[in-house]
Amino acid sequence: MNVQTKPTALSPELMARFAAIVGERYAITDPQVLHSYLVEMRDLYKGRSPLVLRPGSTAEVAQIVRLANETKTAIVPQGGNTGLVGGQIAFNGEVVISLTRLDKIREVDALSNTITVEAGVTLQRTREAAAKADRLYPQLLPSEGTCTIGGNLSTNAGGVAAVAHGIARSHALGLEVVLADGRILHDLNKLKKNNTGYDLRDLFIGAEGTLGIITAAVLKMVPRPRATETAYAGVPSPEAALGLLKIAEQRSGGAVTSFELIARVGIEAAIRHVAGVRDPLGSPHDWYVLMELSSQVEHGLHEVMEDILAAGVEQGLVEDATIASSLEQAKAFWFIRENFAQVQRVLGASIKHDVSVPVAAVPQFIAEANAAVTTLIPGSIPMPFGHAGDGNIHYNVTQPPGADGAAFLKRWDEVNKVVFEIVTRLGGSISAEHGIGVQKRDKLPAYKDPVALEVMRTLKRALDPNGILNPGKVI
Fold first, then answer.
1. Alpha helix (H) ranges present in 397-443?
2. Three-state DSSP class for 122?
3. What number is the average pLDDT over the span 328-355?
4. Which strand (E) or helix (H) includes residue 136?
5. What is the pLDDT of residues 209-244, one digit of tens each?
6. Who has the most CB within 10 Å: 53, 275, 281, 455?
């Protein structure tokens, strides 16, 4: 998918000035090397740029942005290039600023339960650094080895542990941000209580690089769990899954850290197309729950999980269940869930939605969306899955078997319209954890409060009057 806005032209002299800031080694112009920065991982969005800059410090980022603002040169900040809505792609010749060389873990403060990292540090390295201090950085995404903290914060990423720990915004205490004129906002505080004026931090989290470029962050850590239990449960319906969630919340004392809902069609696809995947239970079920409990108490959590599942069986909510007997089996349980993106690529073209509704409305949303989508495109295959514990459902629709994939994808907006209408009616959001980018930019006015949208535009004009930061994204 190519997106066109106002093109950016760079003279050789200007390119040389940008390159001089980072050094020739870190100024990429070779088309073969540029390619990996201009195409996202699903090959859905393809961009163009004559120059990728890889600064090694916040000071270099500031110099780049200052020059860009003076010359009115558009720039696109990029982390690990794992975004799913095109927000990190340069579509019209903008200069790309890759932040992956800002990879220092500046401090781990176990007593304050904080870790200070630069924007290019991967989520995996952040979690590993916290673990060395016997702490947990609680955000968890399948792309943890590639996605970066700067990207996670810029998109306000979610993940499988949000039911317990919240999304990216929940983990950030302070930020360091390069503003559109090259000034550096120094707000790397560790404080849980800080009422000295406006909370500027939240302006930049979820803004996708349109208001400023996050270069470092102070993140909250939590005590590392002493016990974890993982279970698969076969349930007859999404309503039953929410009944099981209620039991788990009541009987676990806040220990529910993940609660994933998966349709049988997804399990079957993973079994057929992903090596090493086995059916998690002895017989098929219409729906599955992948549930994880974590506790600071070393003993007794297994019995808590058994009690939850037994109560589910007694109340007719659980048809069958199994608890992982080892770390390897728990990883195998999660392996099924983590390979859903790969599975859908094998099945054919897929129209994807990252939506959220109130938790209680999840069953109604799935039922109504399934009916609407299959009426619109007979033979299409809804594959809903995701974070039922916090109301975030990845509602993906796969092409009818044997259909033309390209023709199916041309109906993306039609499918969006019927799905988003249901989401809106149920009080939900058309973007739960992936952001707006370019994919939903033109749809946003139809679903965002007009006053809120105008406030967003006012902030954009005030902070980036020359419109150089990630133009054509979000608003």
1. 405-409, 412-425
2. strand
3. 90
4. strand 135-136
5. 999 999 999 999 999 999 999 999 999 999 999 999
6. 53
In this predicted structure, what is the pLDDT of residue 8?
A: 56
- Enter the DSSP assignment of 284: -
Residue 166 has pLDDT above 60, yes or no: yes
- Mean pLDDT over 133-146 rounds to 95
- The DSSP bridge partners found for residue 337 are none
Cα–Cα dist 27/19, whole Å: 5
What are the beta bridge partners of residue 238? none
H-assigned helices in 238-352: 238-251, 264-273, 301-314, 327-338, 340-347
Task: State in Å, rounded, how far the first CA of the chain is from the last one.
Answer: 19
2 pLDDT more than 80: no
What is the structure's pLDDT at 340? 82
The Cα–Cα gap between 278 and 270 comes to: 8
The token pair that represents 303 in the structure block: 């019995």
CB atoms within 10 A of CB 201: 21
Per the listing, tokens 């089996």 go with 329
Beta strand 172-178 with 227-235 is unpaired
Contact criterion met (CB below 8 Å) for 241 and 291: no
Q: Tell me: pLDDT of 1 over 60.
A: no
Q: Which helix H or strand E contains 18, and what residues bound it?
A: helix 12-22
Q: Is residue 87 within 8 Å of 208, Cβ to Cβ? A: yes
Tokens 């699903």: give the residue: 42
Tell whether pTM > 0.85. Answer: yes
Is residue 337 pLDDT above 70, yes or no? yes
Q: For residues 274 and 339, give the distance between their C-alpha atoms in angstroms, rounded to a whole number.
A: 8
Residue 7 pLDDT greater than 60, yes or no: no
Closest C-alpha to 149, from 110, 186, 121: 121
Q: Residue 78 pLDDT more than 70?
A: yes
The runs of H, that is alpha helices, within 197-300 are 201-204, 238-251, 264-273
CB 55 within 8 A of CB 104: no
Token representation of residue 210? 């349109």
Query: Pick from 209, 215, 216, 214: which is nearest to 467 by CA?
Result: 209
Long-range contacts of 33-42 (CB under 8 A, 24+ apart): 36/81, 37/78, 37/81, 37/90, 37/96, 37/98, 38/89, 38/90, 38/96, 39/89, 40/81, 40/82, 40/83, 40/84, 40/86, 40/88, 40/89, 41/81, 41/82, 42/84, 42/341, 42/345
Helix H or strand E segment including 452: helix 450-463
